[in-house]
Amino acid sequence: MSADQSGVRVMLVDNEPERAAMVCDALTSEGYEVVGQRSSTRGLVAAVAQEEPDVVIIDMDSPDRDTLESMSALNEHAPRPVVFFASDDSDSHTIQQAVNAGVSAYIVDGLEQHRVKPIVEVAVARFEAFQSLRHQLEETRTALEERKDIERAKGLVMKQNNCSEDEAFHSMRKLAMDRNQKLSEVARQLIEVLGGAEGAGSPEAMDD
Amino acid sequence: MTDWMHGTESSETIRLGFIPLLDAAPLIMAQEAGFFAEEGLDVSLYRQPSWSSLRDRVGVGMLDGAQMLGPMALAINMGLGAPPCPVISPMVLSRNGNAITARRALYEQLTSTGFDLSEPSEAACALARVVASSDEPIRLGIVYAWSTHYLQLLDWLASAGLSPGPGLELVTVPPPEMMTALAYGSVDLACVGEPWNSLMEYHGLGQILATGCQVWQNAPEKVLGVRRDWAQANPEKLRALMRALVRCCRWLDDPDNRELVHRILVHPHYLGSAIEPLGDQGESLFHPRVQQHFFRQSANFPWLSQAQWLLSRMRLRNQGEQLLETPDLDSIFRPDLYRKVAESLSLDAPIMDYKDEGEHRQPFVVEGVRGQVEVAPDALIATACQD
Q1: Which of A14, A144, A149, B208 is the most buried (most CB within 10 A)?
Q2: Is A106 within 8 Å of chain B by CB?
Q3: What topology is assigned to A3-135 in CATH?
């Protein structure tokens, strides 16, 4: 990070506290000053007047974005949207990445564009990292759920066919192979068919 | 649909964004009642958390198109607030749909001024009277500055010589929070799209004081906006998309379908349980005073004269002041494309692109491609008093 970035003040608006902490750490370690983390834009104009940030980074999924943009149209002291002019390919790439990651940036009192870009990039990297963490967590959770479904279906098949655990498992695996489906899908279908009322598990429709 | 998903889309899928308001009904019902499917289209709908995010996602191509505010279709081409993105608007999706709702305490004060509140400009005069005699500023809640409802609000205020200032403060509030703001008095007047005015009345928080259609009669409220590069690469798909939407809009104007519309919109993916009070029978889904409609009287026709009108109002309110040139409006609003689609549906459409905006207090007839076509009135609010 070039030395001229120190002293640039950044305000974060994100209702995802863990993600905000990640962005805050990353920016701080790059030498930026993070001046306040907020979960909504309520009172933002006053906070901007008090904290004097140069840049405001806001989560794109916040309904507060329209509020912020309206403030900028109505109040000359409100933060203004960063408009990277797409004349430069690397700028339009930055915009694309930021929108994909869900980061939007606003500047206060005209900080130069080239000084905003690295801040947006840091935020984008953290948003992406957070997203992939959450994704991993979801995968782990799904895997756990799937294992539970398979166990349960196995029990139901054993009861239905009066067979051993091994035999139940093999018949389920064969069914999965015949239908070209995942074992967990077969398990869910079996729970629905065999589980009756108590098997009211996932309401998802099976698309076949 | 609630979250951004990278789901099971193919290159054939059309990705469209919407904002959970009543006038998202054309997109939602075209999906749910099968109009898209009947045209052989595979459409994914994405609910957006804000107009800003909807605009940005169309801008970078995560969405091919969206339900857009009339002024947004112009602003996105002009690069106001975001990098410019060429977008075309080949049809209007809805007309009317906004209102200004007064908090009960304020409504009583307005009533006691003796002005006839059923006349919008007199209601504005009543407000001027209250503002002049009030020690505390009256707070006006708006949702988004780059919108039809905000431009209508300013014209309504101007009809009584009012404008936002120290005695009349503008506050911006996201739509779902507007009811709370009105309930607790952090706003006295709420200017917002439906269903929020109906809901504020239903919950006894306020009363509709003036409607958007009393300010600009039958204005183009929401339009279809699609990326120009997508439209050029997919001319057949665009026509099929428009056919599905026009057919859906006609279906939406039929009161017999309201019950189904309510049943679908109340789903959490769409508007959610907030609209439950608006009736299982759907009879109160569309507030009679708001006059929201989707098809009748050439509602879908994208008049170039209305694009000009919107641009002139945006300019008047200093939106787009940094703009040097007038955008090429006839490359944005595309009545030519609409006419072709109307013809393929055996519907008639006006042969001209312009009409005299503000000149018609009653429905009127213009020359159509096949015969005469009825067009809705387009009167503008008159000035009632100047204090």
Answers
A1: A14
A2: no
A3: D-Maltodextrin-Binding Protein; domain 2 (3.40.190)
